[in-house]
Amino acid sequence: MIGLVLLGVLAFAVGGCACVVWAERGGPRWARVVAAMTLAAGELVRRSGKNRRRQVNGTTGGDN
After folding, report:
1. Distances 26 to 31, 38, 39, 46, 63 between C-alpha atoms, Å
2. I need a surface site. Which of 8, 29, 54, 63 has the fewest CB within 10 A?
3. Looking at residues 8-22, what average pLDDT do you find?
């Protein structure tokens, strides 16, 4: 079951990356929308990883 979920996430990621490349080359409007959503999701994941690392390192802005 988990394997199917991971395969689905992988398929969405690969499809999103393909839409990013296609949109860069002037693809249809729907490909540009999917590309924008893919890039936004990637940015959210990247920011959450940065926030998580800050919390682990103990530099959350508390009483340090």
Report:
1. 9, 16, 16, 26, 51
2. 63
3. 94
